[in-house]
Amino acid sequence: EPEVTQTPSHQVTQMGQEVILRCVPISNHLYFYWYRQILGQKVEFLVSFYNNEISEKSEIFDDQFSVERPDGSNFTLKIRSTKLEDSAMYFCASSQQGTGNYGYTFGSGTRLTVV
Amino acid sequence: AQTVTQSQPEMSVQEAETVTLSCTYDTSESDYYLFWYKQPPSRQMILVIRQEAYKQQNATENRFSVNFQKAAKSFSLKISDSQLGDAAMYFCAYRRGYGGSQGNLIFGKGTKLSVKP
User: Fold this and answer.
1) Residue partners of A33: CB distance under 8 A and separation at least 6
2) Minimal Cα–Cα distance from A41 to chain B, Å?
3) Distance between CA atoms of B42 and B40, rounded to whole angstroms?
4) What percentage of chain B carries pLDDT values higher than 70?
5) Of B44, B46, B104, the CB nearest to A45
6) A34 inside 8 A of chain B by CB
7) Would the pLDDT of B101 be above 50?
8) Is the CB of A42 less than 8 angstroms away from the CB of B42?
9) Backbone φ, ψ for residue B70 (5° rounding)
10) Largest CA distance in chain A
11) Residue B11 burial by CB count (10 A; 0-12/13-18/19+): exposed, middle or buried?
12) Chain A contact set for B107 (CB, 8 A)
């Protein structure tokens, strides 16, 4: 069964450093998403991406965050200057359609620890 | 804004028994979709079951079924013949329907299910 692949599985970074989280969505999917889950809390939407541009973003997704699909297969989330409160599990997901009952396929997540 | 509420932070069930996890949501829209996701200790998010709001028939997937009450805005998950592998965090999620929606999921806080042997 096709999978969404995320790398790395765990990243530790110093506060103030830039990090890039990588995702390879399912090849025939058109919609891509990043979600965040702070430990013990619910999963929160960050951003959706379609046709090489952001289609929607939450208030969490401020100027410190950016997304990119640099080569037609990878989908990246960049945090420019990490803060302690950015420590969380980050999930990438993809979907064939942007609406409807198409379920997402989630990746296994990247655990980001900011120290 | 849409909200999803899971009122049971933790639930426990005996192996082979049946358990029901509750979920309510608030929306002014008539077209939407509801999902249950399972998150085992590996923390991967796995789709368990989905329901279209326009369908009256409750969705079923093997041992998993839902009780969708649209008027009450309730969407509970029933797990029959519980297995040890069902132990996980379960998240209820809402997704807007058509009409310009970008389709992001809104999650509840989750219910941690334990299965006792």
Assistant:
1) A45, A46, A47, A48, A49, A92, A93, A94, A95, A104, B104
2) 6
3) 5
4) 95
5) B104
6) no
7) no
8) no
9) -65, -45
10) 40
11) middle
12) 42-44
Is the distance from CB of A35 to CB of A43 less than 8 angstroms? yes
Instruction: Check: CB of residue B108 under 8 Å from CB of residue B22.
Output: no
Q: What is the pLDDT of residues B29-81, one digit of tens each?
A: 888 899 999 999 888 889 999 998 888 899 999 999 999 999 999 999 999 99
d(CA B66, CA B10): 19
Contacts of A58 in chain B (CB under 8 A): 104
Question: In chain A, what are the helix, strand and coil shares in percent, each to the nearest 5?
Answer: 5, 50, 50
pLDDT tens profile A40-91: 888 999 999 988 999 889 999 999 999 999 887 899 999 999 999 999 999 9
